[in-house]
């Protein structure tokens, strides 16, 4: 171990030296947590300072207690954030910061000589933080730690035991009583809103195809299973389409992959603009799409595809003026004899194969032989 490593190991503020490296997600969520807790801690410590001061003016304590109080109230919240931000594991660092807060609350209770209202409020604040941050076990351990620290500190600090709260001390406790719980509630609310947004985005990412924005294959197949069950139960018409861009490999090879991507996006847009909002479009992979047309006859599906074939003739893609994008389509109407959704899908695939075999740029409907 070189000098630099030895030195950093013993630096009290360099807690990162003893922490395991984390993956990016865990690190960032720890960092967010430390930043989220900074505002309530700063405001809470300020409120506590006012409350403390109201009690300390009546205590004949040495002046350096005041200095310690000022440092703890106004410097510690920012120092705690710095410690967490510089740590390789901000969540663990913040856990330690909360333990320090808990210890300091125990000492604070001893300094205030058990003064009823300020001591209860101080304990409430710490308990709210502990349970909100790390759950019930951390809260219970924190409560024990607070009580033990308070009892031990009372032995060392010669503060007179005085449980009575004067009217002045009551008024100076009001900011802690009113502001802190409201701020804590606000932080919880903001976290809940962020979480809901996070969930919504996660849901979107897990069900959509990243390039086109239509459903990805996994999710689309789930919707197909539901459609199959409904069509079977209610004996209603439903049509399945598989669509494949013709000679797509050749498009990629001739014009490049970016033109290929633009062709995929353009076909998606044509499908979205031409088909009904109720039609369920999915990207099946590569240059292949699939559509569920619920309550639609194969004749209507063919008519819709004819419109797409026609409109695609006018499609011009940037940097590929001579490119004429064409598609082949396989259509399979739902049939109660199909034993599962895969058989339905297979029928559409066979129709698509027929369209390719018959010369491409056309629509074929599956017929039971
Ligand atoms: N640009 C681009 N190419 C892709 C993407 N996904 C798959 N491909 C390519 O698409 C091509 C698919 O070609 P195929 O479906 O096998 O055949 P094809 O050339 O379309 O021929 P036919 O279907 O018989 O008309 C392959 O070369 C894949 O590498 C994509 O997201 N973007």
From TrEMBL:
<dbReference type="InterPro" id="IPR000160">
    <property type="entry name" value="GGDEF_dom"/>
</dbReference>
<feature type="transmembrane region" description="Helical">
    <location>
        <begin position="63"/>
        <end position="81"/>
    </location>
</feature>
<feature type="transmembrane region" description="Helical">
    <location>
        <begin position="102"/>
        <end position="126"/>
    </location>
</feature>
<dbReference type="Pfam" id="PF00990">
    <property type="entry name" value="GGDEF"/>
</dbReference>
<dbReference type="Pfam" id="PF05230">
    <property type="entry name" value="MASE2"/>
</dbReference>
<keyword id="KW-0342">GTP-binding</keyword>
<feature type="transmembrane region" description="Helical">
    <location>
        <begin position="170"/>
        <end position="192"/>
    </location>
</feature>
<feature type="domain" description="GGDEF">
    <location>
        <begin position="236"/>
        <end position="368"/>
    </location>
</feature>
<comment type="pathway">
    <text>Purine metabolism; 3',5'-cyclic di-GMP biosynthesis.</text>
</comment>
<dbReference type="InterPro" id="IPR029787">
    <property type="entry name" value="Nucleotide_cyclase"/>
</dbReference>
<keyword id="KW-0472">Membrane</keyword>
<dbReference type="InterPro" id="IPR050469">
    <property type="entry name" value="Diguanylate_Cyclase"/>
</dbReference>
<dbReference type="GO" id="GO:0052621">
    <property type="term" value="F:diguanylate cyclase activity"/>
</dbReference>
<keyword id="KW-0812">Transmembrane</keyword>
<keyword id="KW-1133">Transmembrane helix</keyword>
<dbReference type="InterPro" id="IPR043128">
    <property type="entry name" value="Rev_trsase/Diguanyl_cyclase"/>
</dbReference>
<protein>
    <recommendedName>
        <fullName>diguanylate cyclase</fullName>
        <ecNumber>2.7.7.65</ecNumber>
    </recommendedName>
</protein>
<keyword id="KW-0808">Transferase</keyword>
<dbReference type="InterPro" id="IPR007894">
    <property type="entry name" value="MASE2"/>
</dbReference>
<feature type="transmembrane region" description="Helical">
    <location>
        <begin position="38"/>
        <end position="57"/>
    </location>
</feature>
<feature type="transmembrane region" description="Helical">
    <location>
        <begin position="138"/>
        <end position="158"/>
    </location>
</feature>
<keyword id="KW-0548">Nucleotidyltransferase</keyword>
<keyword id="KW-0547">Nucleotide-binding</keyword>
């Amino acid at each position: 171990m070189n000098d630099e490593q030895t030195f950093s190991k013993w630096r009290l503020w360099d807690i990162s030296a003893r922490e395991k490296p984390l993956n990016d997600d865990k690190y960032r969520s720890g960092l967010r947590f430390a930043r989220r807790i900074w505002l309530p801690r700063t405001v809470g410590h300020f409120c506590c300072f006012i409350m403390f001061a109201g009690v300390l003016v009546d205590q004949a304590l040495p002046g350096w207690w005041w200095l310690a109080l000022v440092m703890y109230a106004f410097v510690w919240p920012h120092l705690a954030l710095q410690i967490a931000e510089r740590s390789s594991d901000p969540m663990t660092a913040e856990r330690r910061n909360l333990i320090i807060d808990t210890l300091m609350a125990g000492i604070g209770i001893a300094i205030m000589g058990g003064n009823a209202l300020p001591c209860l409020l101080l304990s409430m604040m710490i308990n709210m933080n502990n349970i909100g941050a790390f759950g019930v076990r951390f809260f219970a351990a924190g409560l024990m730690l607070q009580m033990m620290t308070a009892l031990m500190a009372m032995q060392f600090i010669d503060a007179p035991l005085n449980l009575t709260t004067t009217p002045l001390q009551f008024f100076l406790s009001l900011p802690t009583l009113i502001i802190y719980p409201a701020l804590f509630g606000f932080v919880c609310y903001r976290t809940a809103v962020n979480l809901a947004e996070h969930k919504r985005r996660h849901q979107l990412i897990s069900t959509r195809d990243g390039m086109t924005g239509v459903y990805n294959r996994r999710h689309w197949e789930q919707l197909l299973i539901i459609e199959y069950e409904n069509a079977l139960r209610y004996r209603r018409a439903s049509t399945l389409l598989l669509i494949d861009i013709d000679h797509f490999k050749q498009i990629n090879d001739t014009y490049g992959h970016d033109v290929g991507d633009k062709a995929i996006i353009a076909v998606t847009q044509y499908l979205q603009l031409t088909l009904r909002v109720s039609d369920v479009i999915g990207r099946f992979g590569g240059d292949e799409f699939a559509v569920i047309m619920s309550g639609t006859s194969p004749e209507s599906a063919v008519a819709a595809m004819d419109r797409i074939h026609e409109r695609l003739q006018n499609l011009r893609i940037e940097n590929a003026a001579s490119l004429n994008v064409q598609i082949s389509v396989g259509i399979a109407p739902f049939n109660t004899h199909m034993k599962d959704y895969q058989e339905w899908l297979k029928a559409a695939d066979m129709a698509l194969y027929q369209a390719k075999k018959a010369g491409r740029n056309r629509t074929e409907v599956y017929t039971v032989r």
